[in-house]
From TrEMBL:
<keyword id="KW-1133">Transmembrane helix</keyword>
<feature type="transmembrane region" description="Helical">
    <location>
        <begin position="97"/>
        <end position="113"/>
    </location>
</feature>
<dbReference type="InterPro" id="IPR007401">
    <property type="entry name" value="DUF454"/>
</dbReference>
<keyword id="KW-0812">Transmembrane</keyword>
<protein>
    <recommendedName>
        <fullName>DUF454 domain-containing protein</fullName>
    </recommendedName>
</protein>
<keyword id="KW-0472">Membrane</keyword>
<feature type="transmembrane region" description="Helical">
    <location>
        <begin position="12"/>
        <end position="40"/>
    </location>
</feature>
<dbReference type="GO" id="GO:0005886">
    <property type="term" value="C:plasma membrane"/>
</dbReference>
<dbReference type="Pfam" id="PF04304">
    <property type="entry name" value="DUF454"/>
</dbReference>
Amino acid sequence: MRRALFHVAGWIAVALGVVGIFLPLLPTVPFMILAAYCFARSSPRLERWLLDHPRFGPHIVAWRESGSISRRGKWAATVTFAISIAATLYWLKMPWMLFPLAAMCASGIWIWTRPEA
């Protein structure tokens, strides 16, 4: 039962990651890292597929080995956060705008404190 739940969660994470390719506000690589984690507990074949993937594999391996994020990934997240902050300031009113602003600022700081791949 537990293995099946990890398997389903892995595929959900892959689906969200694929959606994130087309939606700039949804991160792709973190969902693929989550999918690899789930597949490691449910399907070694699917975990290997993700680790060997030419686009996502290097990011997943770098995260597993050293918790690192590439400089390009950090800048992509920062630009996305800036766009999201602008949208938040435009559409939300006080005090509702404070919650996403705080989350984005905290996430951005955390991302920039990670080592670089």
